[in-house]
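Morning - calcium ion inputs below, output right after.
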Amino acid sequence: MRLLVVEDDANLNRQLCQALSDAGYVVDSATDGEEGHFLGDTEPYDAVILDIGLPEMDGLTVLEKWRADGRTMPVLMLTARDRWSDKVSGIDAGADDYVAKPFHTEEVLARLRALIRRAAGHASSEIEIGPVTLDTRQSKVMMNGELVKLTSHEYRLISYLMHHRGEIVSRTELIEHLYDQDFDRDSNTIEVFVGRLRKKLHSEVIETVRGLGYRM
Ligand code: CA
């Protein structure tokens, strides 16, 4: 397994590289965003540890560029402690996980192992099912590359189904996960929304599993 560490703090960079190679990984390192971006763009890594605050190019930009270029390797972001907005931005940019500084090296190692195991999953903030793409970052749905205008109810519904791709989702589950207490809990309402979505998508991507629910 080959890893990349992008961290501008020289001590921390060295410490991480040491711990990772002790754990049996092959490690490359970079101390600024530009070099880090170049390495991640040209070399095949099994995972990347990416600091958010970097000289030349910040970590979020590095990650966004990789994802935009189709680089799907798992990325663990290093964020400043208590900066919840960093964590949100990192995950939106396509990070698979994050660790807040200061951290224990063991935690980084454990999270990396998990990321590498899950690497077959979604590495970007977009989920694709057939011709339908869900952009979770911008809360948009595209059909064959074209934006589909959806109401917030319709968006939440398709988003839930797409996040549970391949699973049968019951009407009850949809109501419980998507709507607040005041929502009309008549499950026929869900049927109406599904009907509208099917019309807007002109597609058979939402399957009805008789007596059980829906599946994408
Ligand atoms: Ca930094």
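Note: Residues 8-9, 51, 53-54 surround calcium ion (CB under 6 Å).

O.
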